[in-house]
Amino acid sequence: MTDIAIQRAPTADPTPTSAADSYRMIRDLFRQDPYREMAPVFDAEAVNAFTAPFEIKETKDGFSFKADVPGVKDADLEVTVTGSRLTIAGQRAEDVDEQGDQYYSCERRYGAFSRTFALPEGADAGNAHADLKAGVLTVVVPKLPGAQPKKIAVKSTGAAPPVKA
User: Fold this and answer.
1) Is the dihedral of CA 13, 14, 15, 16 positive or negative?
2) CA distances from 23 to 12, 16, 32, 33, 151 (A)
3) Distance between CA atoms of 67 and 128, rounded to whole angstroms?
4) Full-prediction pTM beyond 0.85?
5) pLDDT tens digits for range 72-119
6) HSE-up of residue 103 (Cα within 13 Å, Cβ side)
7) CA distance 117 to 86
8) pLDDT above 70 for 55
9) What strands, in cross-sheet order, belong to the sheet with 77-82?
10) Which domains does the chain show, CATH number per domain?
């Protein structure tokens, strides 16, 4: 029992005495992670998983879904339509580590992703097509011919009624 060292907190005043101490204190404050205690609550794999950001827009001819999927091969992508649901799934494989490699930072994400979108009425899912170019997946779902907007002419039937003030 005599081998146990007792460590006591320093009794020095924590108030910074110089500009360098002030900067050091601010740096240490910003380095703190207030959510560290809650880490077991969060799924670390889900937080660090690869997700593809999407851009979805409607044009006069159809619907366009664009996803940034850098490093994903076309063989690792799957685009399916079931009823009025469009599902886009893929996977980016992790690089193989060499023996003895040492990482200093690892901010890239790897893994599988899947997103499902409800197609609006009038979408022609049977004629949808996908293209992968420069790390951007573009899925285009055209509109059915009957779903195209139709311009209706407005006819005037006379003078407008007077407006009361």
Assistant:
1) positive
2) 18, 9, 15, 18, 65
3) 16
4) no
5) 999 999 999 998 999 999 998 887 777 778 877 777 888 899 999 999
6) 8
7) 5
8) yes
9) 77-82, 85-92, 111-118
10) 44-95+106-146 (2.60.40.790)
